[in-house]
Write a structure and sequence with these properties.
Keywords: Membrane, Transmembrane, Transmembrane helix
Largest sheet: 5 strands, mixed
Organism: Halohasta litchfieldiae
Structural class: alpha/beta
Order of helices and strands: EHEHHEHEHEHHHHHHHHH
Oligomer: single chain
Protein name: Putative membrane protein
Length: 371
């Protein structure tokens, strides 16, 4: 059985005509539509009920199955109560239908707001379709109004749209104020544009979630007393110092060899000047991580390989970069035997550390491995 269900979420039918709802049956719906049209000809729910009657007659003419039409209403001013009331009236309507067949609904509404009750109806019966009735000269006007209303009511969406819009609207008055105080308007315009750009970039890439996660981790690490919180900061500082030292080494080599500095030589100079600091950063961060793993009872002997690997890699890169550096004043270059020695030491350190801690794991298993 098909039920053509006309939805009036704000109960215009009951409030304006005094009729009791739900209204079931074609004659009763027609009388209700005429009564509402008499009281308020501009009410869009009049169109909904007449559309429901038109759909009812068309389905009856097909004659494929039994059809009925009904009007259900909610309450004014409260969407939650209105949806609940519509659900109750749908239950009353279904109980009044004298049929043993499964009832399916075709919903007739006058806009997006009334369609918010669709899940309530779907929980009670299958829905074959939803028809929105809008006056032609005002097509999509109510839907647009309801969409804007919903957007402004949502805190997340409101912040996404209104914050950039507010910044854009502030550009002109702030530039005028900046001119009054002899501040370059271009500077203010650039700052505001940068704010909008950064905000849009963060929202578009979803970086706000990553930032929130990072802040939570830092806060938890601070309260939990994690060593990595300090060692990572120290490692970051060492990396910055190493980068400065690497650039300084490149400038030193460039000043002595002339403007035609090859990219291989420049890379070797940068690595040679920075690798000690980079290695120190790697050792610091790895020791902090090992400390936290030990305190959390997750320690394994193999974790101690990390600082030795860092030292081994540092020795190898220091030897390679020193070998490719030109012989200039103020820079210690390495010969081929020095390079061979550095490669040997780095290899032996990596292999011996791996073997040492593998043996330690096999003979003295940690608590994690024992479980």
């Amino acid at each position: 059985m098909l039920l053509v269900l006309c939805v009036d979420l704000d109960d215009d039918v009951g409030r304006k005509t005094g009729l009791s709802t739900p209204v079931v049956g074609s004659e009763a719906v027609r009388e209700a539509a005429v009564a509402l049209a008499t009281v308020d000809p501009e009410d869009s729910d009049v169109n909904v009920m007449f559309q429901g009657l038109s759909t009812y007659e068309a389905l009856r003419e097909e004659g494929t199955e039994e059809v009925e039409v009904a009007v259900v209403t909610g309450v004014e001013g409260n969407d939650v109560r209105a949806n609940r009331t519509v659900g109750e009236e749908v239950d009353t309507t279904l109980a009044s239908l004298q049929t043993g067949e499964e009832v399916r609904a075709i919903i007739i509404t006058d806009g997006a707001q009334d369609e918010s009750v669709v899940p309530v109806i779907r929980s009670r019966m299958p829905i074959d379709g939803v028809r929105r009735v809008v006056v032609r000269q005002a097509q999509n006007l109510e839907s647009m109004y309801y969409t804007i209303k919903q957007v402004l009511a949502d805190p997340e969406t409101r912040g996404t749209i209104l914050v950039p819009l507010g910044i854009l609207l502030l550009i002109y008055p702030l530039v005028v104020i900046a001119g009054i105080f002899d501040v370059a308007g271009a500077v203010v315009l650039g700052l505001l544009s940068a704010l909008v750009g950064l905000y849009s970039l963060f929202r578009g890439l979803g970086l706000e979630d990553s930032i929130d996660t990072t802040v939570d981790r830092l806060r938890n690490g601070l309260y939990a007393g994690r060593a990595t919180l300090i060692t990572y900061i120290v490692a970051f500082a060492l990396i910055i110092v190493g980068g400065v030292q690497g650039v300084s080494m490149v400038e030193t080599v460039d000043s002595t060899t002339g403007p035609s500095l090859e990219i291989v030589t420049a890379g070797a100079a940068f690595v040679h000047g920075a690798i000690q600091w980079f290695a120190a950063a790697g050792i610091t961060s790895s020791l902090g991580q090992v400390t936290d793993e030990y305190l959390a009872d997750r320690f394994r002997w193999r974790y101690l390989n990390a600082p030795f690997y860092v030292v081994a890699i540092g020795i190898v890169l220091y030897g390679l970069s020193g070998f490719f550096l030109p012989s200039v004043d103020g820079i210690v270059t390495l010969s081929l035997p020095d390079l061979a020695l550095a490669l040997t030491i780095g290899t032996l350190m990596g292999v011996l550390s791996t073997l040492t801690f593998a043996v330690a794991e096999s003979r003295y298993p940690s608590q994690v491995e024992a479980t």
